[in-house]
Design a protein that fits this description.
The chain is 78% helix and 3% strand. It has a two-stranded antiparallel sheet with strand order 1-2.
Length: 193
């Protein structure tokens, strides 16, 4: 069962739905900046540029997919719970990665975080089955594989590309949610008229 992304919010308090979307979109904006920051640790401006270009291209494709095919499945309660659990695992992974960094194991930071992000984005694919999810999940797995392949010493160039890729995924999701927010606002104005 699929529906337009904005109609998935029908039957819910519109103001509450809009606040939730604004909150998640804002958080995705922060994550976009966080992951893009890894591009600036590269050894050269060419690699930084490649990471930022990857971010921009991935975000653009995700946005175009969200505009062209905005349909999404209405998730089951179990699928929504799985999305919430994997979101929590992301927070735990970031905490563990910082703790490992305190023991001079910084090379594990991005691989651990991206592994948890891949699990979370996969749970979103399972729950919502949007066109944007089908695009972003393989990109995220590619970024994760790239981060794990970087090794233990000279990982900053590889992280620049992987970080750029994930930055683009987060920006793409933020843009997709922004489209839903616009539709919700438009439907609320129609209801008031």
């Amino acid at each position: 069962m699929s529906s337009d992304a904005s109609s998935a919010w029908e039957g819910q308090d519109l103001a509450k739905a809009k606040r939730a979307l604004i909150s998640v979109t804002s958080f995705l904006g922060l994550l976009t900046i966080f992951y893009a920051a890894f591009t600036f640790y590269a050894d050269s401006w060419q690699i930084t540029s490649a990471g930022l270009a990857a971010a921009a291209l991935i975000a653009l494709v995700a946005w175009l997919l969200s505009r062209r095919w905005p349909d999404q499945a209405v998730p089951s309660a179990a699928a929504e719970k799985f999305v919430g659990i994997t979101s929590g695992i992301e927070g735990i992974a970031i905490t563990v990665a910082f703790i490992l960094g305190a023991f001079d194991l910084w090379w594990l930071f991005l691989p651990l975080v991206l592994t948890s992000v891949s699990a979370h984005f996969t749970s979103m694919l399972i729950a919502y089955r949007r066109a944007v999810d089908w695009f972003i999940v393989p990109v995220t797995f590619s970024a994760t594989a790239l981060a794990w392949s970087a090794g233990t010493t000279d990982f900053f160039n590889t992280w620049a590309i992987a970080g750029g890729m994930l930055s683009g995924c987060c920006a793409g999701y933020a843009l997709a949610l922004f489209l839903v927010l616009r539709k919700l606002s438009a439907s609320a104005q129609e209801d008031e008229a």
